[in-house]
Amino acid sequence: MSATILDGKALAQRIQSELAEEVADFIENNAVVPCLTAVLVGHNPASEVYVRNKRNACGRLGIDGRLERLPEDASLDDLLSLVVRLNKAQDVHGILVQLPLPRGMDPTRVLQAVNPLKDVDCFHPENVGRLVQGRPRFLPCTPHGVQQLLKRNGVETAGKNVVILGRSDIVGKPLANMLMQRGADATVTVCHTRTQNLREITRQADILVAAIGQARFVTADMVRPGAVVIDVGMNRSDEKLVGDVDYEAVREVAGMITPVPGGVGPLTITMLLENTLIAARLQQT
Ligand code: GUN
User: Fold this and answer.
1) Residue 152, number of CB atoms within 10 A of its CB
2) Could you tell me the sign of the dihedral formed by the alpha carbons of 224, 226, 231, 235, in that order?
3) Catalytic annotation present for 25
């Protein structure tokens, strides 16, 4: 039996049309246009594409999507000065420093410098701490996108075994935290490079999330028949964009599966737009 495909693109369009109405209401009530400013240092080709997609999505929703560029050889001080300027700018509600930064530039200091009220990525330690304590200001974009894909496709997480492959600060760690919170109520296992007997663990998963950044790492024998498989991976392989899951083989075993592209990716951008609206609301005092 072939898995049900979880269509992230269609779901993202649905949520974005809901958000567009909320943005229009916000503008009418406050006479303020929500603004997201992305900061791009250098010319990483993948980052160029991500930032372009984010700005285009802003435009579709009536959000002001801006871009500030710094050259590849900019100093840490140049970047920190830019962040301080954006923190102060009253017409900028969300700040997104696109990662990765050029070699040698420590992201920790930069992400800590962002005003927590404008931290639409939810990378600032204050916002990460709030998330862990179950009183979030923002939800991080990709984990929130995964949660929306599950929720809006009727996949219950309460009492379910969720196995997450990957312990990154952007996906694995925050997603594990969100799904173990009261309300989501999953039993969460996080696997990483030193995990032993990986296949035995992944085969226990009712919901398997792959976020490791290795093309086609998850093979059919690692998946329990009927499991829900969420692929967060975006890898280049022979000029093609492929996920962390061997899609063609795993779709014959799984109950539900996300494609790449067209799965989690469009939801990540959508959640960023939602966070920009939340940030704009937080700043109307
Ligand atoms: N690079 C890869 N993913 C992300 C993300 O979610 N936010 C930012 N700022 N940079 C990224």
Assistant:
1) 13
2) positive
3) no
The pLDDT profile of the chain, 285 residues, written as one tens digit per residue, is 699 999 999 999 999 999 999 999 999 999 999 999 999 999 999 999 999 999 999 999 999 999 999 999 999 999 999 999 999 999 999 999 999 999 999 999 999 999 999 999 999 999 999 999 999 999 999 999 999 999 999 999 999 999 999 999 999 999 999 999 999 999 999 999 999 999 999 999 999 999 999 999 999 999 999 999 999 999 998 889 999 999 999 999 999 999 999 999 999 999 999 999 999 999 997
Give the atom of ligand 1 at the shortest distance from the alpha carbon of 100.
1
Residue 170 near ligand 1, beta carbon < 6 Å: yes
CA terminus-to-terminus distance, the chain: 54
| Residue having the nearest C-alpha atom to atom 1 of ligand 1 | 99
Q: From the CB of 141, is ligand 1 less than 6 Å away?
A: yes
120, 96 Cβ separation under 8 angstroms: yes
**Overall pTM surpassing 0.90 (yes/no):** yes
- With tokens 């590849």, the residue in question is 72
Neighbours of 124 (CB within 10 A): 20
Place of tokens 């950044």: 213
DSSP character for 218?
Answer: B
Q: Is residue 97 lining ligand 1, measured as CB closer than 6 Å?
A: yes
**CB of residue 105 inside a 6 A radius of ligand 1:** no
